[in-house]
Design a protein that fits this description.
By secondary structure, the chain is mainly α. The chain is built from three helices and no strands. The termini are far apart.
Length: 80
């Protein structure tokens, strides 16, 4: 399980805080400090993987699918 990228988490927190209505601007600093740990905890619970891990597993699945198709073709040719 991958831990959230802190730079990405900071960027997400910043964007969420900036999206607040102008009348809440005084609370932005407080919200920024409180929101980040909540986001980090929730993202950690989601058991996310990194893009690199995803791409590796995607390639493994593609190779497995190709091998399965080859085996299926061989099996089909033996049935003929």
């Amino acid at each position: 399980m991958a831990r959230p990228d802190l730079k990405t988490l900071d960027e997400l927190t910043r964007r969420l805080v900036e999206a607040l209505p102008d009348d809440l601007s005084a609370a932005r600093d407080d919200l920024r400090e409180r929101l980040r740990p909540v986001l980090e905890a929730q993202l950690a619970r989601m058991e996310l993987v990194t893009r690199e891990e995803f791409e590796i597993q995607k390639r493994v699945l593609e190779r497995s699918r190709e091998k399965l198709e080859q085996l299926q073709n061989k099996l089909d040719s033996l049935d003929d």
